[in-house]
Amino acid sequence: MTNSENSTYENAADIEVFNECLDALSVNLIKEDLGVDQQKQAGLDEFFVEGSSQEISDEDIKESAWIASVLASSDNDVHKRKALSFGILAYLRYRDGNQEPLYERYLYIILSRVGNLPAFNNVRRAEGQLSFRHQMMESLDSILELELGTNYNKYEINEGKIFSDFQKQIYDLLVDGKDVAISGPTSSGKSFVLQEYIDYRSRSDESFEAIYVVPTRALISEVSRKLSKRHEDVEVRTGAYFDDPEINNPDENGPDSFLVVTPERCSRLIDPETRYQIDPSLVFLDEVQNVEEDQRGVLFESIIESLTEFYPEAQIVAAGPYLDNPAGTLQSLTGREVGEVTTAFTPILQLKTTIRFISQRTSTERKLELVVHSPSGNQETIEVAEPENLNYSEFKGNKTESLPKIIETYGKDSKNLIYAARKDFAEKRAVRIAESREEQTTTAEMDDLIDFLTESIHEKYSLVRCLNKGIAYHHGMVPKIAREEIEQIYDNSASLDTIVTTPTLMQGVNLSAEKIFLVSANRGQDELTDFEFNNLIGRVGRLDTKLYGAIYCIEAEGKEWADEKLKNNEKKEIESATSKATKDSKKLVKTLRKTDISQEENSAIRYTSILLRGRHLRNPDSVSSYLREKGLSDEDVAAAEDALESTLQNIEIPESILRRNPTVDPIKQNILYRNIKQNPDIWIVGANRHEYSYDKFEDVTKQLNSIFKFVNDENFGVETNNKETENWAIGPVIYGGNEWLNGHSYNAIINSRQNFYEDEDVDTAIKKSLETVKTDIRFVLVKYYSILTTLLEHIDTEVPDWMLRFDQMLEMGSMRYNRIKLMSMGVDRSVAVNLYIPDEVEDVVNYLQENRSSIAPFYQRHLENQGIF
User: Fold this and answer.
1) Lowest CB count within 10 Å: 96, 635, 846, 856, which one?
2) Contact 474, 426 (CB under 8 A)
């Protein structure tokens, strides 16, 4: 853009009447959205005179529409966002009126010029309007018709599918075969363009395989389901384990395959014995900012390095929201040239407002302040009536008690999210809102979910009580299958209108929310970073119904926090866990000199030390260049190499095993390796399910803990400052692991806990039981039993095949083949357990299909989603 062009757009963006229209239309829409009337009280007259919503005329809006249509052609995201905001606001003002066609045209023109034509398809609200584009083009003058037609053709790819400018840039780089780093908000269409590219490669390549790395287990099912539905000819696998006999010898002429895995599961690709089972043309890394987390960040970095090494021809693509310099991050991890496409632009108008309760001495005409953050960049403050039965003191004193009244007043007839900083806050707030409501009319899907939770979790589960009132809570300790069903019901049914959610919403969960209410900007005890806050509120907005999303931050006078958060537009430059650790090079070197680093309190330094030990054992010469790239001096690099050399000289464990466990100290793994070689029998839990015993499981688990110190064990003299488990001591971990392995349902596990802890309430018992399963068993125990089984497989002594699969059974929660088979196909454990399939059944899928009529509707829908039916 030339200087004169830039000056023209800057001048247009600053035109007073245009910004006044943006302010007034925003205030009007917020008032309408909240269902409130503005109070004309003392001190507000000046606001009305200077540009209140009531003073904006139709002529002002027409003039501003012309300005917005010009501004839409700018290359500046701020200008484009202003133009689009006006287009949507004006269209909403005149929708269903005589002037709707005019502002519909303006909106189309603006969307065309900002490069976001796909959004216009969502404006069409009736079948009869689908020919709108052709009708509109015929009504325009020839020059404008040529411009819009050219734009349409520019972003059309095939079969009438239209990309946004952002999507088209990504697609072109992908088709050119380049590695790509992408930064864009949730609604920018990253997933859509990736799926179009998969379609293209599946059509054009003789064979096509891809690996899709997601940040959490919960996202595996969601991503797999969407990919299976979209790409019917592609085999989508969750890749939990590769030693299933049916996939040990893959059919070279079989269908294209798509592997969806977490970083932990992806580590199994590193084993030379399983690596050949997939040959990806594409590796997609979602939520790449997770490389910043300490343990998982080191794992993520190791995975990227290994995937790049083992599959050098594969195209590497990484994505995340609101990132600064994502290409630099990916290039530092792969060492390859990377193309970059970034945008902060979203086709959804997001209106941000602070609702402030103010202290007032008089009890008459009590009011609230609304601070509307207009797309113009201005903040417009108005006063409205306070909600009935809720005042400043009540809100300031108890937010949980205030939320039912807030949602009843401002969240009627809309899809709402309420943000809570902690799991217990989310549950308490959801329960309190539910208690304030009458029972709702539910759908068959909701009734089925309630029945399932009553049977599989507990009849007194607070989530059940909430669902009966049209509300839910959503966090990591809600069973995965329940979270998925809640998301689907919320998106597709009026029977669930409000979800209270924790930061799990930032982990790739997409909900079609129209409003989000926040009473704080914390995550636990810590304040959300600006990046985390933007990522959270960026998930609000329903383009298919209202064209906008509303963010309401609620605060009390004297405890203001919202306006500072709402006005930030910070992008995040990713700093990996290893980069954070190497900033304190002296402490890093000091840690590397220790034999036992398990008690190092700085987790970034602890896990970076583990990564460096693994790197040194694989390729000693690579350490110096790696550390120099991180900015260490020659002196510190030499000291680090000397520390590694002195502490690792007696390591015997094979390098291939270390690769599979990059976040576990090689020295600890080597101790286990030596112990197993000396006496392998004491490390074998059993030869089969019938020989398994609690005592043997307890003995082996305690021996593992004596080496790795992941939890306290007074009997073995293990006391750790950095326990990895939710439980303080090893006893509950072993007891829970035994129940889980034996296929006990969550309901049975919870009842067992209640019998032991008689004074514990139901919801605490549920929470503690689910935490034990998710963290202590499926993450911590599985990690160390995975090392054990891998080492047993590499020694000369013959080890029962059943034992070599023990870590798989521990993760899945069963020792029965039929259940494991179903779970490996994506079926939720609770469903697999509750189906009660006889052990003698060999073809489990055929058995279920033959007995479909006797299976409950909830289970049938789940089996359909997983491709069993």
Assistant:
1) 96
2) yes
pLDDT digit string, tens, across residues 572-600? 778 888 999 999 999 999 999 999 998 89
Tell me: pLDDT of 127 over 50: no
Within 10 Å of residue 821's Cβ, how many Cβ atoms? 21
Q: Distance (Å, rounded) from C-alpha 80 to C-alpha 71?
A: 7
3-state secondary structure of 289: helix
Pairing of strands 282-285, 209-213: parallel
DSSP label at residue 528: P
Nearest to 618 by CA among 655, 662, 668: 655
Which residue reads 């549920």 in tokens?
766
Q: Using the Cα atoms of residue 536, residue 538, residue 540 and residue 544 in order, give the sign of their dihedral.
A: negative
> Tokens 């930061």 belong to which residue?
503
Cβ(214)–Cβ(194) below 8 Å: no
User: In what side-by-side order are the strands of the sheet with 315-320?
Assistant: 235-237, 257-261, 209-213, 282-285, 315-320, 179-183, 338-342
Residue 522, burial from CB neighbour count under 10 angstroms (0-12, 13-18, 19+):
middle
Residue 640 has pLDDT above 90, yes or no: yes
- Which amino acid is located at 490 in the chain? Y
- Distance, in Å, from the CA atom of 792 to the CA atom of 803, rounded to the nearest integer, reads 9
What is the rounded radius of gyration, in angstroms, for the C-alpha atoms of the chain?
29
- At 482 the three-state DSSP class reads helix
Q: State the chain's mean pLDDT as an integer.
A: 86
In the numeric block, which tokens belong to residue 382?
Answer: 């108005």
Which residue is associated with the tokens 């001048």? 11
Residue 633, token pair as written in the block: 């001096």
DSSP 778-790: IIIIHHHHHHHHH
Residue with tokens 């509950």: 732
Six token digits for residue 346: 């979203």
**pTM for this entry:** 0.88
Q: Hey, what amino acid is at 597?
A: I
Alpha-carbon span 207 to 741, nearest angstrom: 39
Q: Are 275 and 310 in contact (CB under 8 A)?
A: yes
**pLDDT number for residue 45:** 34
Q: Which residue has the tokens 């110096």?
A: 624
Contact 754/770 with Cβ under 8 angstroms? Answer: no
Q: How far is CA 687 from CA 371, 704, 804, in A?
A: 68, 19, 9
C-alpha–C-alpha distance, residues 338 and 176, integer Å:
12
pLDDT of residue 8: 83
CA distances from 506 to 286, 299, 530, 542, 623 (A): 12, 20, 13, 17, 34
Nearest by Cα to 92 from 348, 369, 409: 348
Q: Which helix (H) or strand (E) holds 383?
A: strand 379-385
